[in-house]
Amino acid sequence: MTTTKHHHLNQDITHILRDLPQPSDYLWHPAIYQPSEPSAALFTPGPLRREDHGLPDELYSLGHHRTPSPQLFSVAAAGRSEWFHGDSLRRRHYTNISIELVTHGAGVLTVGRKHYRLARGSVFLLHPNEAHSYRATSLEPFKKLFVVFDATAPIHRRAWELTGLLAVSHMTLAPESARRAEEIIERIISIINERGPAGAFPASLAGYELVAELIHLRQHSATPDGVPEMLHRLMHTALLRLHDGITAHDLAREAGLSRDHLSRLFRHYTGMSVRTWLHHLRMSLAAHLLLRTRWKVHSIGDFLGYPNPYSFTRAFSHASGLSPEEFRRRWWSSRPTSRPKPR
After folding, report:
1. 287-310 burial, b for 16+ CB within 10 Å, e for fewer?
2. Where does 42-220 sit in CATH, by number?
3. I want to staple 142 with a disulfide (CB 3.0 to 4.6 A). Which of 64, 92, 136, 293 is the partner?
4. Is the pTM of this model over 0.90?
């Protein structure tokens, strides 16, 4: 690629990065997905579920017809679930943010390649742009309460970025804290159930109370799962320098750590090695560039540090199941006429 072409792409990258879905969360959960693709969950019933194969949720929703809420933490729905042994759910990605509290039984949450044991008092958070699954593992019914928050408007995304909870997938609450969280969620369910759309504002106020409770617990926990600021900084550095061919060794040197030490940090907080995380980030950004720009496929590969078009096509095809050309063609052939055209 010529120097002039690199210059134009480097000018464009600042605009591209502004369009990334949920920028901070995008770094924690780099994945390939199409924005138009519904975040449908694949529910698989366990052997104890003989009749009803539907998602075992008692859901109370404020509906999708309402205008975007000006509330920083806007509740969209809430409810209860009861799962039997072996019941499981899997999503390729998620479009909202969900806080889920386990009240009975046990289960396992998987985010990427990281697994979390779920028990009474566990809170798990589901994030946008995240592949995750969870399943019931106890003979006792696995019960949970949940609140779903909008994560579509910029005001919502920015508010969640400031909480620090986008880097948290799991927390274990003390009994008293779990009781408070349970009371708040039950209150949200009652508000939505009794008031319908008129309950959007009070439900969101209670939702903010729940978020504030988790922020407080995370900051004052005896065993905090706080993410080092250095890791946040390195992730943003990697995103800005993907086109320079940045490597795990480069990031380790930037942090003043050995590559093994940095990889252990990444494994602890993301479930992936630095090298694997960089690869997922490149593929995720490649998908975004294919959908949101008119760059040639070979230009995208060159920009992301691949030595030739074949190596980029092979890597992307392995990650997505489609060649870059087919991935782009399927997206544009199914787009609504009202969707903004790529630059």
Report:
1. bbbbbbbebebbbbbbbbbbeebe
2. 2.60.120.280
3. 136
4. no
